[in-house]
């Protein structure tokens, strides 16, 4: 595959990659301290759980749905995992528990959306509130403290623990990038996101695909919750507030169409990178970090605007093509 | 304005879509106080002409005159100002609003801040309803009204807007006899008030009761405009059908094989399919004819498992089968190329290669992973076999012309190697060249032993391609005709719901 083909195939991701490049360049000129190893390391470890959630969100959005309950799912899983650890569940079992727990919670969303046929934005808004308030009610706002010694960093040194977390995110990224392109299931995700009825006629069951994407979303959120929890010595019960927005924003900024069917996890990677490093970048550039949210908002708007503009232009190009073709 | 000045005159109108001519040099006029019937086969150009008169689309050539003044910048809004109103088969009211509100929309002069004068609004509604002979409360919610009541509300709205020209598209399609009589009364009353009515209907016998003149369209051209008096149904059908069949269709003598698909007493309430018996043999092409809305597409969808049947049997190769969804259908060797190519036949955003292999993904996967080499091989094979013109396999299907998109849709199903192929309007809206190629391809497939069930609204296509022709009317098979004894008149007769007195009703002889 030559350079031009790569370019034309990744035109949705390109703006975000360029934005990230510009950001790095500006930092290199204005605040080279940003590139100190320790800072980059912190940034990677901080962003890894968000990236894992954003991967799941990419799948959900590609099928044309949305999940705004992930922040609450994240909190429920974090607290539950903390309790299980305190109850003596061995640390090496916890990742499996995290995946299963998340998958079950995600399946609730998936069942309501795919089987009952309710709109995902309403379903996940309801579960977002239900899980969050349910958790608050059960914990009375108390943190999970006095975690067993082997919980933090999985019992490894901090350095190894951090490496493990980042490694997990990288492996998942690679697996999802390959799966979406090379598996029949990945192809089906795109087909369902583009046109549900056409997919159904081609023998794909859209309900199964949508259900599966919510289960996957839940499982990844559970895992992300565990990888995040082991970084601290206590687990607050209000974890994950705003996580859904971070994940959705990363996906959209990365060039995934909010109406589904188009985009890649590579785009999501760069979307997460841009939005995740803005805050730190502002600090290093000596700009008041209060601007972080405003700038993130501006980036999201720009991304969505660019998407709308590009698809409008493409529509015109398509029309011209079809005219030329039939003449 | 003298009485002879036409209300609306279309002068030498031509219109084509994507290079396919819909109307050629059509002239038409509507006088004050006449009911002018517009008839023709599916696709003869009736709706295009209506769209041009109502300003929904602009003609490529020719001019519309209203009250003898040319209208150049015609838009739906302009049409309304000129007193042109249209009523379609499905009433377009706002179901959650009351009748009086529906009647007020677009009629009352008002700005955003104008206060609504409810008593006046109701008074006017009552008056308009009275004029069309409807006795419903103006406060009734439009969605709760019956179909004919809603239609009357629409007519009342048209009258309220001082419509001088009323276009009625199949207004009686969903009415009972009594409701139809009532509607005739309203139409006659309007005629007396000097309103001109353009009346489109497939029920030819009702035209003799209601119409003054009739214009016959065929293949986008006006065949004749004449007085309705003294014209017979047979004459009308002959005018609609007209030409001798062109011999562009590859007629093949195929030795029909075993029964591939058999329907026994198939019923599906939701799809409106009733007691359908039909057999399709391997190597044969069975044409499925009928008017739009007669249940052809619904039957195809029922066979393919998209709307599962309530009762009856679907048998493949003499074995009864249960199909619950499309995947089952595909696994049993059924293929369905849907009607609406642009929406559901292909996925325009995906590349050609993915579109071609979408129905055989599981077969194409090795250990869960898509075999890209095999995908490329299959896709390029069909690109070559069907002569699909495309820049590359990776071009998204949306960039291709209509004919080539349809070939991609066909490729998807041929790749699945079905034993029964159901085609729904396979050549609708594509240019002549591609059309001939697709016809040749369908002939080839049948010659290779595939059983083909082909839905088409184009009678010449049905006649040219089919070994046998099943004609549907209101969800039933009205008759099955053999190729040798079929004429367009016989098909139309059955399609229009006249149980075949003149045309022999043939079931396939059992062997």
Key terms:
heterodimer; A: 327 residues; mainly alpha; ABC transporter involved in vitamin B12 uptake, BtuC; 13 helices; 74% helix; disordered C terminus; B: 511 residues; alpha/beta; Rossmann fold; 3 domains; six-stranded mixed β-sheet; globular
What's this, in brief?
The complex is a heterodimer of chains A (327) and B (511). Chain A is mostly helical and 327 residues long. Chain A contains 13 helices and no strands.
CATH level-3 fold name of the largest domain in chain B: Rossmann fold
Low-confidence blocks of residues of chain A: 318-327
Question: Do you know the CATH architecture of the largest domain in chain B?
Answer: 3-Layer(aba) Sandwich
Largest sheet of chain B: 6 strands, mixed
Number of domains of chain A: 1
The total of beta strands of chain A comes to 0
Proportion of helical residues of chain A? over 70%
Content-based structural category of chain A: mainly alpha
Question: How would you write the strand order of the largest sheet of chain B?
Answer: 6-7-8-3-9-10
CATH architectural designation of chain A: Orthogonal Bundle
The largest contact between protein chains, plus residue counts on each side, is:
A-B, 31 and 43 residues
Mean pLDDT of chain A equals 89
Compute the separation of the termini of chain A in Å.
Answer: 32 Å
Our count of domains of chain B comes out at: 3
Rg of chain A, nearest Å: 21 Å
Radius of gyration of chain B: 25 Å
Oligomer: heterodimer
Number of helices of chain A: 13
> Would you tell me which CATH topology of chain A applies?
ABC transporter involved in vitamin B12 uptake, BtuC
- Total helical elements of chain B: 18
Strand content of chain A: under 5%
Report on the structure:
The complex is a heterodimer of chains A (327) and B (511). Chain A has 13 helices and no strands. Chain A has 327 residues and is mostly helical. Chain A has one domain: Orthogonal Bundle (ABC transporter involved in vitamin B12 uptake, BtuC), CATH 1.10.3470. The relative contact order of chain A is 0.18. The C terminus of chain A is likely disordered. Chain B contains 18 helices and 22 strands. In chain B, the strands form five sheets. Chain B has a six-stranded mixed sheet with strand order 6-7-8-3-9-10, with helices on both faces. In chain B, strands 16-19-20-13-21-22 form a six-stranded mixed sheet, sandwiched between helices. Chains A and B meet through helix 8, helix 9 and helix 13 of A and helix 10, helix 11, helix 13, strand 18 and helix 15 of B.
